[in-house]
């Protein structure tokens, strides 16, 4: 137990050093910190000059709340807990594989393919796995209690992409690790480029931009489709939600979970009784733990 504690501290310190390195070296390769800032600024500028809802303020309701979640989820939570927890979990995962004589990182290997093919396969598979997980976040009552934090957004803007409960780190990252890092054995050095694409598409999906992809809407998620995912009400057929795509919309079209009855520009967002749901940062973090049933 003491050994695990020291491992936890050592890993957290390593991440702290990495975080300081990328913050103090803007030109460092694969710099997640400034990538996040750059993409956020670009999409925010697009929101300002090409707004979909022109009466919506540039600093919309919940704007600074969403940035609080960004700072907490991407930096504080990672620094204090999640990175170290992930390293310990990976350690136990490999010990379990060894105990049951299950091969490590050799089940399916993408290394035989060129870099471009590897990235495309990983992008498709990771998006599909996240689509499945996203559906589970809506269908499984326990998961929905945490996912409601993301759906507490009342006005849509790019920064709404940041608002999610830290519990979702465990669900998404756990699923992606098991299926892609172990089962598929993808070379992690390419993840940065896919992560960049996902951040950009995620920002655009949540943005207040008058954006229409034309025929490509059947492939890529977009703000006019995703706003319906945040709709306050659905018909019985889509009672547990719709439009679960993360970066791609193809899974929703394939599995018939698309719902876009008309232009959703001014629809009400949230969920039933959202007016009683907390709208402060700390309370949003606590609410899923204290709620014994759906509010």
What is the rounded Rg? 20 Å
How far is the first residue's CA from the last residue's CA?
Answer: 39 Å
* Beta strand count: 0
* Biggest sheet descriptor: none
User: Which structural class should the secondary elements be placed in?
Assistant: mainly alpha
Give the low-pLDDT segments: none
Describe this structure as you would to a colleague.
By secondary structure, this protein is mainly α. Helix content is 56%, strand content 0%. The chain is built from ten helices and no strands. Helix 1 (2-24) crosses helix 3, helix 2 (32-49) runs parallel beside helix 7 and helix 4 (115-139) runs antiparallel to helix 6. The two termini are 39 Å apart.
Topology of this protein?
Elements lengths: L1 H23 L7 H18 L13 H37 L15 H25 L1 H7 L19 H18 L6 H16 L16 H7 L20 H5 L26 H10 L5
